[in-house]
Design goal:
metal-binding, EC 3.1.30.1, P1 Nuclease, 3% strand, hydrolase, PLipase_C/P1_nuclease_dom_sf, mainly alpha, metal ion binding
C-alpha cells in the first residue's frame, strides 16, 4: 500500500528499501504485528503538529455519527494519553512510519497512470507483495478489530489508530494517484507564491488556506462548518455499499482515483502556479472527501462495535 503525507514522505524511497516482514493469518493480508498489547501498552503519540497532514482530521472527528456502543469501544481501545479522543491519535501512523518501516506503503495505492483503481493490479508494495496498500490495510485492520471482546492476538489499540488514519488517507485523491509521479509528490508547483508539490497541496495547502481565509485558522471551526452541510441523505448515500469484500475500501479508492484525474491533476504541469481558480474549484472536493471519510469511518466502527439494534438504526449494516 502506498502512503503519501505532507511534502514527499510517502514515496518510500527510504522506507520501502527496508521492506516488510509478515506474520501470516488465514485469509488476511500478511501484515506485521507489533506486540499484542491493549491500550495501556500502546506506543506514545503526539498530537498533529502545525503544518502536518490535515486531510484525515475529519475522520477522527466523526464521533457525532458513532453509536453509544461504538463510542464506548473506541474509548476502551484508545491509549490513556488520548483522553478518549480519537482525534488525539489521528497522526500516530504518520509518526510511526520510520519506526514501523513496513507500514509506509500502507498509506496509499498507485495506479499505472489510469483513472481507475484495480485491487489485484494496484494493491502491492514496491517489492510486488500483494495487499500492501491503503485498501488492503483498511481491510486488514477492520478484520483485526472484529476480534474485539475476545482474547485477541492483535494489538487492537494500534489496529484502531491505523484504521482511522487509513480511512482518511484513502479519501485523499492523491493517495490513490499515479505511480510515475508518486501521487503528485514529484510534480513541483507553486501554491500562490510558495514552492511545494501537488501532493502537499492536497494534503495540507488547500485546507490551510481555507482555514486562514474562512475559519480564523481554527480546524475545529472548519470541521463544524463542513458537518453543518452534511445532510441525512448524504450520510445514507455515503454509507451504502454492497460490495462483498471485508470493507468498501475499493469503492473509496476508486472514487479518489477518479477525483485525482478530474480535479487534482487537471490543468497542472511541472512548475504550475496554482492560485484562486484552482483553490476555489477544488476546495468543495476536499471538503466533501473530509466529510465522507468521517461518515464512513464512523459507519465502519458502528458495524464493528454496535449491537444489532444500534447497527440497524445507524444504517451501518450496509457498509461492511
Amino acid at each position: 500500500m502506498r502512503g503519501q503525507t505532507a511534502d514527499k514522505e510517502w514515496n518510500g524511497k527510504e522506507e520501502e528499501e527496508e521492506g516488510e516482514t509478515a506474520g501470516e493469518d488465514e485469509d488476511l493480508p500478511s501484515f506485521p504485528r507489533p506486540s499484542p498489547a491493549r491500550s495501556g501498552n500502546s506506543p506514545h503519540h503526539t498530537s498533529m503538529g502545525k503544518g502536518g497532514p490535515l486531510h484525515g482530521l475529519q475522520n477522527c472527528r466523526g464521533e457525532n455519527y458513532l453509536t453509544s456502543g461504538a463510542s464506548a469501544a473506541v474509548v476502551d481501545l484508545l491509549p490513556p494519553s488520548a483522553g478518549g479522543d480519537l482525534a488525539a491519535v489521528c497522526s500516530w501512523p504518520d509518526e510511526m512510519r520510520f519506526r514501523y518501516r513496513w507500514s509506509s506503503p500502507l498509506h496509499y495505492a498507485n495506479t499505472p497512470g489510469v483513472c481507475d483503481f484495480d485491487y489485484s493490479r494496484d494493491c502491492h508494495n514496491a517489492k510486488g507483495e500483494q495487499d500492501m496498500c491503503v485498501v488492503g490495510a483498511i481491510n486488514n485492520y477492520t478484520t483485526q478489530l472484529m476480534s474485539y471482546g475476545d482474547s485477541s492476538a492483535y494489538n487492537l489499540t494500534e489496529s484502531l489508530m491505523f484504521l482511522a488514519h487509513f480511512v482518511g488517507d484513502v479519501h485523499q485523491p492523491l493517495h490513490v494517484g499515479f505511480a510515475d509521479d508518486e501521487g503528485g509528490n514529484t510534480i513541483v508547483v507553486h501554491w500562490y507564491r510558495r514552492k511545494t508539490n501537488l501532493h502537499h497541496v492536497w494534503d495540507v495547502s488547500i485546507i490551510e488556506t481555507a482555514m486562514k481565509d474562512f475559519y480564523d485558522n481554527d480546524v475545529d471551526t472548519m470541521i463544524e462548518a463542513i458537518k453543518m452541510n452534511i445532510t441525512s441523505n448524504d450520510v445514507r448515500q455515503w454509507k451504502t455499499c454492497r460490495e462483498k469484500s471485508v470493507t468498501c475500501a475499493d469503492k473509496y479508492a476508486s472514487e479518489s482515483t477518479s477525483l485525482a484525474c478530474d480535479y487534482a491533476y487537471q490543468d497542472v504541469e511541472q512548475d504550475s502556479t496554482l492560485g484562486d481558480e484552482y483553490f476555489f474549484s477544488r476546495l468543495p472536493v476536499v471538503e466533501q472527501r473530509l466529510a465522507q471519510g468521517g461518515v464512513r469511518l464512523a459507519a465502519i466502527l458502528n458495524k464493528l462495535f454496535s449491537n444489532s439494534e444500534e447497527e440497524s438504526k445507524s444504517g451501518s449494516q450496509f457498509l461492511i
